Amino acid sequence: MSLSTEPLAVTGAAGAAESAAPALAARTSGLRKVYGRTVAVDCVDLEVPQGAVLGLLGPNGSGKTTTIRMLLGLTRPSAGSVELLGVPMPDGADRALPHVGALVEGPGFHPFLSGRENLRRCAAAEPLLPTGGISRAVDEALERVGLAAAATRKYRGYSLGMKQRLGLAAALLVPRRLVVLDEPTNGLDPAGTREIRGVMAQLHESGTTVVVSSHLLAEVEATCTHVAVLHQGTAVAQGGLQELLDAGTPTLTVSTEDVQLAVDTLRDNRIPFKLDVDGVRIELVTTTSQQVIEKLVLAGVGVREARRERTGLEELFARLTESDVREGS
């Protein structure tokens, strides 16, 4: 069966209804995957907005890679449905996948061929890439991921980070509507990680949707516009990154030498707080930063510095993936 290169489009009344709703590059509904008695993914409803950079987060064994494999049609769901670029999967794989670049569970190439030779083989199988454009596409992809200088070296001599780069190059041989990356910075040094971050930023600027699975929360916070958190095979949170972070309880950290007076003042006004190495950390649940500072100053507290903070991704992730049931409880 050959892969279709027809453009994907939604027409008619159904298309008009779709245009009124937020455009989605991918969607799952009631997605479930069972291996014997093990439930790997359980009723995941996932929406990936078109043009977003979505970070797929979760502890080991949370179902991230299994979800990605079902999204790409590599694994058939036990239940539920998947749409990729508006096409049902896996039955519509021949229509959707030419427009999708993916790096899943590490790249696989011929060990005795060079990086360029491996990439030329990948390029020859691209239905959207004419034969006359293969050499240029390969050179541009190698340059884009920083492998141009190592292009003639055999793949077996590549480091783990270089293998990851070559896998990413294969995903970027032609312009894509969607790029799916499973732990793309695995094995990379800080410089390589910054380069991959730059590639993701370029994809985002060009309008390409990116789904990236990663355990590096700082990288996700720096590069992603949206986040979906999986825990024990279920999506426990998803949405815009800023919205999720803003939904956490904001705090105000007050630095002062009058710690005891500050504590007494906060207790008298029933304002929740915790002692912090820098002074006092106040939860802004029923009050505002301005009101807190006014009360402290009127009480005679010498406020040296006041810094408003919000929930970080690491704190949010820990809260969402914390086990509800603890042993012995």
UniProtKB/TrEMBL annotation:
SUPFAM superfamilies per the UniProt record, alphabetical: P-loop containing nucleoside triphosphate hydrolases
Put simply, this protein is called ABC-2 type transport system ATP-binding protein
Q: What InterPro entries does this protein's entry cite?
A: AAA+_ATPase, ABC_transporter-like_ATP-bd, ABC_transporter-like_CS, P-loop_NTPase
Keyword terms, alphabetized: ATP-binding, Nucleotide-binding, Transport
- Similarity annotation: Belongs to the ABC transporter superfamily.
Which is one GO molecular function term here?
ATP hydrolysis activity
**In this protein, which residues make up the domain named ABC transporter?**
26-257
The record's listing under Pfam families reads: ABC_tran (PF00005)
| PROSITE patterns per UniProt | ABC_TRANSPORTER_1, ABC_TRANSPORTER_2
